Amino acid sequence: MSYRYTVSLITPVIGGMKLQALQPDDVERMMDRLKDDGRAARTVTYARSILAIALSSKIAKKIVPRNVASRESMGMTKKKKTDPDIKVLNAGEVTKILAKIVNPTDRLLIRTIASFGLRIGESLGLRWSDIDFDARSMHITQAAQRQPSGSGKGVTLVDVKTKNSRRTLLIPDRLLAELKAHRVTLLEHRMKTGDRWADNDLVFPSSVGTPQDSRNVLRVLHRAQKAAKVARSSLHRLRHSAATYMLSQ
Predict the structure, then answer these.
(1) Tens digits of per-residue pLDDT, 63-78?
(2) What is the domain extent for residue 72?
(3) Domain count of the fold of the chain
């Protein structure tokens, strides 16, 4: 994995911040964003390591007082899984968030993520051919992934990376009905769009059929969290609320 490529993953999140203002929480936010984008765990870890190496050189030049991306610094703020203060969103909070999302397609997308614990890239890469309405199931086989800035590729569709990532999920009744209704609405929109439509068979495409950028979905989530008066968090936390939310349904 190239240094330049890794830097291109880091800069969209913290590239605009002053080095002196960086905190471990900002590094965690960067790592969460990469996880939300469907990046592999190795990529996320490598990105933190590259940032730590870069900051080490700034310490030597007395530009920054400490290395906020080092393992020691991350340990100051990153709580253990057994820490009782770490809680997933409860079903009521997820319901409040969903109620504040005005656009039905955005609401269905967030509900799908919350129901199955999908990575954001997996949800944006979901195709209609991956959904078997008769068997009431969906197959996770690909993901939408934003490529580094300057590559000219934008958001592309890639196969999921591991055998565990390729999985089949059973769809609950309510979500199945909403997906059927959404398919009709999307077909109507596609007809109105005409020749501008790029057919990728996506369940949650952009307005012209192309893969969506995950940043758009994060903006929807954060606006809804603010409106619902639920503490702002990443989609990574929403994913881990899936079991609680599904039991409530």
Answers:
(1) 888 888 887 877 744 4
(2) 3-77
(3) 2
The mean pLDDT value for 30-43 works out to 79
Give the CATH number for residue 173: 1.10.443.10
pLDDT band at 86 (very low <50, low <70, confident <90, very high): very low
HEC letters along the chain: CCHHHHHHHHHHHHCCCCHHHCCHHHHHHHHHHHHHCCCCHHHHHHHHHHHHHHHHHHHHCCCCCCCCCCHHHHHHHCCCCCCCCCCCCCHHHHHHHHHCCCCHHHHHHHHHHHHHCCCHHHHHCCEHHHEECCCCEEEECEEEEECCCCCCCCEEEEECCCCCCCEEEECCHHHHHHHHHHHHHHHHHHHHHHHHCCCCCECCCCCCCCCCCHHHHHHHHHHHHHHHCCCCCCHHHHHCCHHHHHHHC
Same domain, 43 and 147: no
> pTM for the full model?
0.68
CATH number, domain containing residue 72: 1.10.150.130
